[in-house]
Every structure is written in structure tokens, then in C-alpha cells.
Amino acid sequence: MPKYRITTATTTTTTTRKEGSIESTTVHTVTKKETMALPDESLRSLAVLGAIKGGIGFLTVMAALESGHFTGPYGVVALMRPYVTITDEQQDRISKIEEKGGRVLRLDTSNHTETVTALRGADAVLSLMLASPKSLPAVEAFVDDCIEAGVKRFIPDVFGVDYTKNLYPCIAHWFLSSAKWFGSRNNVHDLLVSRSDKISFTEIINGYFADATNLQSPALFGIDWTNMTARFTGPAATAPVSFTFRRDAARMVVEVLRNPAISKNRRLRVEGGRMSVDELVALYERVSGRVFDKKILEASALEDAESASAAGIEGFSYMALKGLAAVNPGGEEPVDNALFPRWRPAGMDAHAREMFELERDAVGSRERTEK
Question: pLDDT by residue (tens digit) across 197-213?
Fold first, then answer.
């Protein structure tokens, strides 16, 4: 239910009358009580759906608990699906949340009554429910349950590249089936716009996650630390790519809720760093002190999806090399970092150091195994 504030206003009126030599003064005091809905600026409680199994959900819960901002009675609640099996890692996450004062609830989002009850009192919801053509009705039902529960702000899972651009020419072969969720994100946006008179929303586009474990695969940017080879360098590999650590994306959720007027009904474009694949290889070399065997990428390999596939360039690599992995491809929209001066994301030097340490540990592990 919406939150309310009772205000009291007192008005005093003084009337002076004079009849002949007699002067009289009358004082009238009127006290009014008014019930007013709290403005959207009061976002002091948060529920995160998908906070135990997924990475960014857990990080958001922890960032919210550590921020000191969420002082509402509901607090910060981590919601997990009833079918999630608790592993040792997930039990550790639950313990950390509870140690910080958060709550963990199992929630069957297909149960309308249970969902509304679980969300009542939350000012904001971060939903990591994956949108796909098959799941869109469930997403719509969840948004409507949020509205009934009195939630004021909805943050959908659109983290990553700018889904509003025409990404389909970049999708080839095996990745085609996975591309459906780009279109579904547009459907979720349209849904939220249609409900924006009842619940506000914020979308966060942050580029590729900069966590080393996310960029470790040689298939992504053609960078193979084991064999020290880099397949995509040169003038054809200079398109800008946006990167943001998951922990910084989580902190951005907190900043959005600290600044609800700025972020209301907006698609925000933020990034922790920006560089091309060619620059990323150079950065790795500088931080690690090692030199990659570099192969110059031919521009003809990027002419179309078929040419890219023939050159061994698939999916996310093709997007990056074609210039569609910046949060504002072509520079058409501004980057919104400056709106949030408290948000100081780690840059790409931090990513490169993390990547080098990860690879160094992997090399050490392989050497011990071989012995």
C-alpha cells in the first residue's frame, strides 16, 4: 500500500474592531490535519528477486545493507525461488545477508497472494527474472503484483549491452536462439511504460561485466592467456566497448534509489570503463609484463554475420567489434555517470589486474597438476 504522512497546519487570524472609544480584539485559531501521500523520493526499502543464486542480486543486497540508506521497516529482503537448492556457497550468502540485518524469503512468484504479501512494505524491487518470449506473461503478472503491493519503483534485469539497438545482424548461428531475450527486454520496457502511472521504473545499461571470470573465455575477445595469443587486434578492432564490474552495477542500483527523482522512468547508461578490444590487449600486456602473439583483424571479417562466423567471430565478440557494446553505440545518447557523483566505479586497470591474477593462479594450478 502507498505510504502516507499526516501534516498539521495551524492558522491564526486576529480581528480588531473599534466601537466609539471601545476596542475589541478577537483571535481565531484553526488547526487542520491533512493526509498526504509520501513523494516518490522516499525509497527506503528494497526487495531483490534472485538474490541468492545470481551474482548481481546478492551483490545488490549486500551493497544496500552496507549503504545505511534502507531504514524503512521492511528493510532489505532477498527473495529466492522455492525450487532453489541451497548449496554451501548459497548458504554462505544467506548467512552474510542475515549477519548484516537483511532477511531471506522463499517466494513462489506464480502465487499471487503470496507474492503481494511478501512485497507489501517494499518501496522498490529489483527483479532478476529473466525475460524471454515464454516468460513475459510471468513478468507482467509480477509487475502487477508489485503495483498491488504498493511498490513504488521497479528495476528490471536489463543489465548489459544496449538492447534497444538492432543487434540481430550481429547474431549468428548458435547464438540466434539466445538473442530472443534482447527482443523480450523491449517488451518489458513497453510494459513498464504502460504501467508508469502506477509504478515508476529505472533501467540500467552497463555494457559487459568487467569481472575477470566473465571475460576469461578466449571465445569472447579472442584473447587466450594460456597460449598468449590475441586474435582480434589492429584498426578493425578499435570500436569502443563499455565495461562495468558487477559490484559496481550493484552499487548503481543503490544510487538509483538514493536519487529517485533523477532516475525516475529513465533508461540509464553507465560504465566503469571504456576501451576497444585492441586497447584491452595492450592493457593486459602493460599490467602483466607479458607479450601476446597478435593477429591483425581484417575489416572484411566484420562485413556481415556470415563473414564473421567464417572468421571465428561469434555473438558478443561480433557486437563488440561492430561497435554495439558501448552503452551508447555511436555516441547517440549521453553517458549518465555524472548524474551520480557518489558512484565511483573501478576502472579497467582493476579489471586487468584481476584478470592477470586469475590467470596466474590458473597457471600455478596447472603446473602443480602436471607435477
Answer: 999 999 999 999 999 88
